[in-house]
Amino acid sequence: MALHYVSHGEGVPVLALHGWTPDHRLMSGCLEPVFADLPGYRRLYPDLPGMGQTPAGSIDSSDGIMAEVRAFIDEQIGDEPFVLIGESYGGYLARGLVAERPEQILGLSLICPVGTILDNAQRNVPEHVVLRSEPGVVESLAEGEDFTDIAVVQTAAALKAYRSDVAPGLDAADLEALERIRKNWTLSIAPESGPAYQRPSLIVCGRQDSVTGFEDQYVLLPHYPRATFAVLDVAGHNLQLEQPGLFATLTREWLQRVSEEAG
């Protein structure tokens, strides 16, 4: 299976893995503005199996998805060192890749990652709240739009980003396949199963994230001794849409650390 993907730029490969159900636009939408004035990077945005334009085929587990990600890396990157970014479920996969390829990965960034607890019902998460809103935004939603389900910031700008970066992927997802895969979500090669990852890292969580939270990520910190760990206020699971300025600043600073150490 060949993963559908979009690529921008030339230089050091950057692999960006989106979360569960959306597609590559979740990552390109928030990251391309960051890389706009940072030449020297080749950004790779694949659609994971069962999401976007990549079919699920017979895949029935996270191991199956990981196998396709490995094949994608081998085809598009080969043995070249690369930078890795993962959001939510993509962060879980990214941590798994670090366990397998620590020497090849120059730096790791996790955006609202799934922590050590995969079962949603057992996670330590806050109740959903709305902290910032603008008149008329909720009233402008079309029937069936689920923007308000997890949005902490309900503004026109956040809704515009949601409609361009998140909603198209949700509409394209193969929900039947994802339900099948979800039953076998645990990776056989567990993240954090190897030695501590000693390269520059970034873990960004939303203080009001009602999906993956921020508490379950604390236990990851000893494994990533070079990680900046930031918990942003007025930010839910779509942190990159709700705090785009802080997100961009933290990401650029992390990329600077990665660049300095890579030489």
From TrEMBL:
A Pfam entry, by short name: Abhydrolase_6
Segments forming domain AB hydrolase-1: 14-248
InterPro entries in UniProt: AB_hydrolase_1 (IPR000073), AB_hydrolase_fold (IPR029058), AB_hydrolase_sf (IPR050266), Epox_hydrolase-like (IPR000639)
MF terms (GO), sorted A to Z: catalytic activity
Name of protein: Pimeloyl-ACP methyl ester carboxylesterase
Source species of the chain: Kribbella antiqua
Lineage, broadest ranks: Bacteria, Bacillati, Actinomycetota, Actinomycetes, Propionibacteriales
